[in-house]
Amino acid sequence: MIETLLPYYLYFKAVHIVFVISWMAGLFYILSLFIYHTEANDKPEPEKSVLVEQFVKMEATLWKIIATPAMIISVIAGAGMLTLNSGLLQMDWMWVKLGFVVGLLIYHFICQNIVKQLKNNQYKLTSFQLRLWRELATIFMIAIVFVVILKNAINWVYGLIGIMGVAMAIMIAVKLYKNYRLRK
Question: Where are the transmembrane segments (predicted)?
Fold first, then answer.
């Protein structure tokens, strides 16, 4: 049966990959906009008002036209792949991947909340905190790619240690970048 469905499965897979890339690009870019938007508050008027207004427009457009539609299509294409090849749900690595995907979905909706907060001039996170938050998407992406590529070939203990190591390296890099910017 799977042989007859294979062409459809491959179309779903291709669509899934394209829109996951778009979704991740949207998440990375929206966090950069959040950072610049937050930093615009330190500018003198009228520069501050002009920048904040522009960032609100850019964030809304990116969120409504790229990030959220890409997320929805990624999830639909992924569900299509699982429907056409339900045997994937019998594999442990797929459940690990789906766990990370749930984390990424939660991350997405928290970012959506930040879009709304910034639109309403609520700045609950500093630009440094937003830089750290941006790197969480990187950690999810790395984890998902490694789980999908390595599947059962990875020892989960070493994989978890590796992910934690990457997370620590990213956090240190963000801190070093902050120190560099402050000296500048």
Answer: 14-36, 62-82, 94-111, 132-150, 156-177
Alpha carbon 83 to chain centroid distance? 24
Average pLDDT over residues 115-124: 95
| 63 Cβ contact partners less than 8 Å away, ≥ 6 residues apart | 26, 30, 111, 112, 115
Q: Is 97 annotated as a binding residue?
A: yes
Band (pLDDT 50/70/90 cuts) for residue 25 is: very high
Q: Minimal CA–CA distance to 178: which of 115, 119, 135? A: 135
Residue range 15-39: mean pLDDT, rounded: 97
Calpha distance 31→124 (Å, rounded): 14
Q: Which two tokens stand for residue 33?
A: 């906009």
Domain residue spans of the chain: 1-152, 154-183
| Residue 16 assigned to a binding site | yes
